[in-house]
Amino acid sequence: MMHDATTVEALFPRRALAREEGPLYRQLAEILRRPIAEGRLAVGGELPKEARLAEHFGVSLITVRQALRDLEGDGLIRKRSAKPAIVTAREAKGQPAFPFANFADMAAFTRDARLEVGSFAPEASPMFAARLGVPAGRDGFCLRALLVGGSERRAEITTYFPREFGRRLQREDFTDVLIFRTVQRKLDLRLTVAHVTIRAEVADPTLAAALAVTPGSPVLTIEMLYQAEDGSNVEFTVARHPAHLFSVTYDAPNDLG
């Protein structure tokens, strides 16, 4: 089923996408998702061509392809070589994908969530030497919180700060769901990179209670070491998510020639 201009306009009313509202490809994916979910674009039907979507919404082909990858990851469409993508289901299958390539993805992930701070205080932990590179035995500051979306506990958050940064922060400072954004604003510095490590764990009784899951349940743990422009380690965050809620996706280009 090919789409003429009138059909494209009817399915996808033209609207401007603004970067301040989050990654453009995320916004476009939500626009494309709507007529599929509502049945106006039936299973077996074709989406407009990538170039037509790019022209229609005033975005790049890269943005369109990222949006389509999101929909394909949810099981809603199937991309085809040299042909328009085809709709395969009205509802997403399996767990939602969690693109995690940049700070904008992190912001989009937390858009509908809130940070519930438990404590912020000086603490001694081997994490300071192991992850932040401060001398062994030297304490720092630790923030403990929950990331909550609606009634869902999305993550247990533990964030460590070296003493020179942590002592300039207070518990009441952490009103932003994005901890790194609070750090940038309160310390007047720019965090330029987050080194990310992803691993699997199982929930012990304490973590299980915090996340409202069964002890022994699988947990997706994301560790993020944030660095400033001068290379100094400013923040080390450990976010533990119930594994049934999320997967992590990323693109792996073939750079072997």
Instruction: Report the major sheet.
Output: 6 strands, antiparallel
CATH class of the largest domain: Alpha Beta
CATH-defined fold name of the largest domain: Chorismate lyase
Indicate the low-confidence ranges by residue numbers: none
Secondary-structure arrangement, i.e. CATH architecture of the largest domain = 3-Layer(aba) Sandwich
Strand order of the largest sheet: 4-5-6-9-8-7
Tell me how many strands there are: 10
Strand content: 25-35%
Radius of gyration: 21 Å
Q: How far apart lie the N and C ends?
A: 36 Å
Mean pLDDT: 86
Q: How many separate structural domains?
A: 2
CATH level 4 superfamily of the largest domain: Chorismate lyase-like
Order of helices and strands: HHHHEEEHEHEEHHEHEEE
Task: Provide tags for this entry.
257 residues; alpha+beta; Arc Repressor Mutant, subunit A; Chorismate lyase; 2 domains; six-stranded antiparallel beta sheet; two-stranded antiparallel ribbon; 9 helices; 30% helix; 30% strand; elongated
Walk me through what this model shows.
The structure is a single chain. Helix 2 packs across helix 4 (61-73). The model has no long low-confidence stretch (mean pLDDT 86). With 257 residues, this protein is α+β, with helices and mostly antiparallel strands. Strand 8 and strand 9 form a beta hairpin. The relative contact order is 0.11. The chain is elongated. It folds into two domains: 5-94, Arc Repressor Mutant, subunit A (Orthogonal Bundle); 99-249, Chorismate lyase (3-Layer(aba) Sandwich), CATH 3.40.1410. The protein has helices at 5-11, 24-37, 50-57, 61-73, 103-109, 126-132, 163-166, 179-187, 205-211, and strands at 77-80, 83-87, 97-99, 114-123, 140-149, 152-161, 191-202, 218-228, 233-242, 247-249. It has a six-stranded antiparallel sheet. Strands 1-2 form a two-stranded antiparallel sheet.
